[in-house]
Amino acid sequence: MERLSGPHAASAVELVERLDAERRGRPFLVLRDDHGTQHLVELPRGGPALSIGRGGECGLPLPWDDRVSRVHAELVALGRDWALDDGGLSRNGSYVNGERVQERRRLRDGDTLRFGATAVLFRQPGAASGASMTQADEALPLPADLSRAQRVILRELCRPFAGATGRAQPATNRVIAERLFLSLDAVKGHLRILFAKFQLEALPQNEKRLRLAERAMISGAVNLADLREDAAEPTAEPPHRPGPPA
Questions:
Q1: Distance CA 194, CA 143 (A)
Q2: Which of 1, 36, 80, 200 fits a 20 to 30 Å CA distance from 139?
Q3: How far, in Å, CA of 200 to CA of 196, rounded?
Q4: Is the separation of the CB atoms in 109 and 203 below 8 Å?
C-alpha cells in the first residue's frame, strides 16, 4: 500500500506534535506505520548513523513494508547536517524527492525520502540560519504584518484542519479560489508572496503548503477555534474577496 502522501497530511493534534519537535530545534523524521499512526524520530546532531530497514535491529525499523530490504539504507551525520547513503544495500533502492539515490546524498529540510512504499519526511529546523524554531518564531510575520487579503487566503488554506476528525491536508488552490471567487492565478500569486514572507521558498512544492499552514497557526495569523466557529454559524454574506497580490 502506497503511503507517499502520508507525511504531507496531518490532523490538528499531529501538527502540534510536529511544531513541538520543530521548536526543540533538532533534525527529525516524520513517517506513518501500516496503521497510519504518525511517528516522529529525532536525530541528534553529530550522532551515530541510523540504519533503516525491515529488520528489527535497525535504528529505524519498517517491518510492515515488504518492499524494504532487511537493511535498506543509512542516515549518516555530516557535522550539523545529515545524508542518505543507500550503498547498494537495498534491492528496490532509496529515493529523495522521487530521484533514486546513486551515492551519498546530503539532505535538505523538507526532503521526502522513500524506502519501498514508505515515505519519510526529513525536517531540519533552522537549517538556513542555524537557529532553533524558538528563535525562528520571532522572525515569523505577525498578523499585523499581513494584508487582509493574505489573512483570508491563510484562513482558507488552513480550514480543512478545523473540521477534520482525522488527518487533513491544506486546501488546494482550486478550493480556495472557489470559496473566495478568485482566479487560480490570483490564489497562486497570493501564495507565492506568503511563501516568501514565511521563509518557505526553498522547500519542495509538496511540503510548502503544510509548512505554511503550520507557521500561519504558530504566528497567530490563523486561529483554528475561530474557523470552527465560522463553520458552526450560517454565512450571512459572501466571503471577502481578496484583491490582487500586492
A1: 12
A2: 80
A3: 6
A4: yes
| Beta-bridge mates of residue 68 | none
Nearest to 93 by CA among 105, 81, 82: 105
Residue 33 has which C-alpha cell? 506505520
Q: What is the pLDDT of residues 155-208, one digit of tens each?
A: 999 998 886 666 788 999 999 999 999 999 999 999 999 999 998 888 877 788
**Type of residue found at 83:** A
Q: Where are the beta strands (DSSP E) in 72-128?
A: 73-78, 81-85, 94-96, 99-100, 105-106, 112-115, 118-123
34 closest CA partner among 93, 92, 117: 117
Rounded CA gap, 151 and 120, in Å?
Answer: 31
Question: What residues form DSSP beta bridges with 114?
Answer: 95, 119
Q: Cα–Cα distance between 68 and 79 in angstroms, integer? A: 28
pLDDT in tens, 38-78: 999 999 877 789 999 999 999 999 999 999 999 999 999 99
SS3 at position 19: helix
Report CA 19 to chain centroid distance, whole Å. 10
Mean pLDDT of the chain: 83
d(CA 45, CA 161): 32
Query: What b/e readout covers 38-47, taking b as 16+ CB neighbours within 10 angstroms?
Result: bebeebeeee
- Binning the chain into helix, strand and coil, the percentages to the nearest 5 are 35, 20, 45
C-alpha cell of 180? 473566495
